[in-house]
Write a structure and sequence with these properties.
alpha/beta; 43% helix; 8 strands; Rossmann fold; 8-stranded mixed beta sheet; 276 residues
Amino acid sequence: MKDKVCIVTGANAGIGKATALGLAQMGATVVMVCRDEGKGKVAQAEIKAQTGNDNVHLLLADLSSQTDVRKLADDFQAQFERLDVLINNAGIIPGARQVSVDGIEIQLAVNHLAPFLLANLLLDTLKASAPARVLTVSSQVHAWDAIDWEDLQSEKSYSPNTVYNRSKLMNVLFTYELARRLEGTGVTANCLHPGVVNTNMLADYMGSPREGFSSGVPVEEGARTSLYLATSSDVEGVSGKYFREEREADSSPDSHDEEQARRLWDLSVVLTGLEE
């Protein structure tokens, strides 16, 4: 991975940090995207110390803010000439409905619209760096709920887990539609289930206190499929697929609905003000 530039969102803890560490160990230039500067700097220093790789950089962004996402893309492109791997890893599960600074339900904003917007803003850089890869961390729970098109922002009803499940389905629909749109460009798009991993996210999903939480596999194991898709020659040119345990797997029937995928894409363009 020497001379490869990789972005990892949500990189100061959990699967994101383990992914950033793994990429740094392979010699990649790693750009960690974090919301909290203090936590980001601590994680950055730890990764540099553990790997001896000084090419570990930190960019700050609150991914619930579209202004921050746009600034993140601008800041990255001002500092780096290429992008080989974009890993959309960050996600949240708040217990009560929250609204972003842009007036959007916050799981929709962070879990789906941020990866959608960031990937689109960086597409020219990815294409110029081809072969390049876009990875989005979804979950097996994408199969557990359908998108409620009549209540996309959960204004009528908010259940943390249901909204999260739907956002993970959006990740798969987005990935498949992105892959179709990227055919012939040398940029691939894939998504993955990382496993049931011992993170704050899992504690939030299970409604458990974070202190002493011990369910799930270690984060290092949770990062394996992300690292595989980011680095392995086995998946060179493979696009529009869903993976688990470093293997291609079946995603839900809903995730293969191209009409839903196009509908979600068009709505996302509107919600982000993206000019295609």
